[in-house]
Write a structure and sequence with these properties.
single chain, alpha+beta, 2 domains, five-stranded antiparallel β-sheet, 30% strand, elongated
Length: 162
């Protein structure tokens, strides 16, 4: 690889800027509990040349699920540089596990599922979405949404964070 990669201090500054952009204190505090000083490693890029690998930075680790949050300018970066990957699987994985912001990456991890930040919304066609339930864990929100869909299958209900 001929391109220059960031160093740990630069990645740490990028992470700090992303964390500073999170307005919800509950999300910010929960993310802070799993953040680590950036650790460089290489991951295989499955969509390029055979055995092609790029520099990535582990920036957070959720020991309960084995998932790590990483940053990389390569692969799906720079547009979506924040990835959710399995620490034990040294590949970039699918594009659906890469995000524009660190906050979105964290919210899609298991580490955020226990937070009481999730709402169930009734999607309106011509009106704003209506909050039906709020301040739930992700599992509670899924259960509530499922019951609503069974009661009224023609409606569309969404799960979102508060």
């Amino acid at each position: 690889m001929s391109e220059k990669s960031h160093n740990a201090a630069e990645v740490s500054a990028i992470v700090k800027k992303e964390v500073d952009n999170i307005s919800n204190a509950t999300i910010k505090d929960a993310l802070a509990t799993i953040l680590i000083f950036p650790v460089s490693h290489n991951r295989f890029w499955e969509y390029g040349k055979e055995n092609e690998e790029f520099v990535c930075w582990t920036i957070a680790a959720d020991n309960n699920s084995g998932v790590t949050l990483i940053y990389s300018d390569y692969g799906f970066g720079p547009i979506t540089p924040w990835g959710l990957v399995m620490e034990s699987f040294p590949y970039f994985g699918m594009d659906s596990n890469w995000f524009i912001s660190l906050e979105d990456c964290f919210l899609n991890s298991n580490a955020a599922s226990e937070l009481n930040i999730w709402s169930v919304l009734k999607q309106g066609n011509d009106s704003p979405n209506e909050i039906i339930y709020h301040e739930l864990s992700f599992e509670e929100a899924k259960e509530k949404r499922h019951k609503l869909l069974l009661e009224n299958p023609s409606m569309n209900y969404l799960i979102s964070h508060v």
